[in-house]
Structure formats: C-alpha cells, structure tokens
Amino acid sequence: MLFFFRKNTNLFLNYYKLFIFYALVDFIRIINKGKSTYVPCDVRKEIELNIPISSDDSIINLAAVHRTPGHPENAYFETNMRGAENVYSFAEKHKIRKIVFTSSIVPYGAAEELREEITLPTPNTPYGISKLATEKIHQIWQTKNVDNELTIVRPGVVFGKDENGNFTRLYWGIKKRRFFYPGRKDTIKACIYVKELVNFMTYKLTNHKGGMELFNCTYEPAFTIEQIIETIKDIIGLNRHIIMVNGSLLTTAASIIGYLGGKKLGIHPARVKKMVSANICGKKIVHRDTNSNNLFEEAIRDWYR
C-alpha cells in the first residue's frame, strides 16, 4: 500500500499491512475532515494514475509482502524490491520530494545483542534481505536530488486494531491456554502501537532535517515477553499461569502439529524459532519526558477497547 499525503486530499494504493492503513485513514479523517480519495493499484507494476499528482505531494510507502512464514521466497523480492523501484520511478516522474518508507527490524537479523540504527544489518531471511535491499533503493532515490527527503522507519512488532498478527495470536494463546514460554521468559520483543507509529510517520513529513533519516520505531527500553504478557493479563483481567516448556521440545511438537494442520491455527515451528530476542534500541524516537511503561499500558488498553 502506498499512501499519498497532501493538504486536502489523500490517495491510498495497494492493500498490504491493512491495519496500519486503517490507522492512517483514521488519522487523515481527523486532519482533513474526510476529504480523501482511495485508488487501488499494484506496485509490482508501473504506477499510472488518472488523477492530479503534484510535486507538493508526499508518499508513505507501506507496500510489502511481510508475513513470515507464509509466502514463497521469491514473493518477498518481487513485491518489496520491484514495488520500491516503481515507487522510485513514480516519485521521479512527478518530482515528489518526500517519502516515508516503512521497513522493519528484520534487516538486523536474529540476535540477542542490542541493535541501534548504526548497527550493521545482517538479515538472515528472504524477508529481511528484501527489506534491506528495498531500503537501498529508496536511498538511491534520495541521493538523486538534494531536495529529496527520505525517512526510513524500522518498526518492531506493530500491534493494534485488526492486526491479526503476533499480539492477536499471543492474546488468544493466553486466553485459551495454548501459549507456553519456549524455554525462557526473558526474550526481548521490541514493539510499538500502530497509532504511535502512524503519528511518528506523519510527523516526519513536516519535521524532516533533510537528506535521509533512519529510525527504529519501538518502545524504549524494549520489553521482555514476560513483561508483555503480564501487562496484557493485568489490563484485560486474565488470570492465567503460563508454564515454561523446553524450547526444543516445543519446536518438535510444533513441527508435528503444524504438519497435521496446525499451521492454519498459527502453530508453526518457524514462529517458535522466532522467540529469539529482538533487542532493538528506540532511543531516537523517545522524548525525555515519556515513560515507555505507561505508553505501553495505555496502548494495550486502547487496543483492547
């Protein structure tokens, strides 16, 4: 999905990451009083629109094949990289000077060590490799003109209304007593609420320092899986004791259950293996007077409403 931002009209293209799209729609309805236009297209193909486009417009590029596991390896490259090239060409053609691109923390690769924006990315999955390559395509666009402004955001796990992803599976896993700690409780999982991500992205459209800026978009400090679970339990009133199971045993069980049809229920060995820490530093987007614990609790309350 692409999102074109202008003062009185907004254009949305290609429906990936729908729940972030919906959050953007809600935001725009507030600031533009409902003056929006929605135009579907496929970013894997040349972008041609029969509507007025000007150099005063801005682009928020959300288009991606991102769920992993869940897609053939080539699909990540076809959509993410080719889509970025077509966005690049579209921006060049219409002399658009501002792009916000949503990347991901996956280019950092799986590791326990703290990852900052200056950390060398070492992606180890097709999705992560495609996302890093897509960042580079956007950076090439930025260097073509001194007036081009590029913001790259690397969100952690994004949760919010209708995300139907990690947090939704976690909630139902806790509620239905299907979730177990896979060998540890201190796995760090960097995350951010969708509304905070949207607020930051739209803020950068009018508050950019020039050139290219890169931001990890996560709470700071990042929370452990135990802290996330305990907060969810407290906010929604779930009284559950979650046991810890040997990680290797859980992976083996997930492989068997997944083969027998459990993948349709979200039971997949690859998701168990993803319980390696995503230890991402979010200091660059944190204000000194904010408290991540309070922000996270408020976000869970808002999400659960």
From TrEMBL:
Native organism taxonomy: unclassified sequences, metagenomes, organismal metagenomes
Species: termite gut metagenome
Protein name, as recorded: N-acetyl-alpha-D-glucosaminyl-diphospho-ditrans octacis-undecaprenol 4-epimerase
Coiled-coil region: none
UniProt keyword annotations, A-Z: Isomerase
InterPro entries listed in its UniProt record: Epimerase_deHydtase (IPR001509), Lipid_A_modif_metabolic_enz (IPR050177), NAD(P)-bd_dom_sf (IPR036291)
Record's signal peptide: none
GO molecular function: isomerase activity
Residues covered by the NAD-dependent epimerase/dehydratase domain: 37-211
UniProt KW ATP-binding keyword: no
Enzyme Commission numbers on file: 5.1.3.26
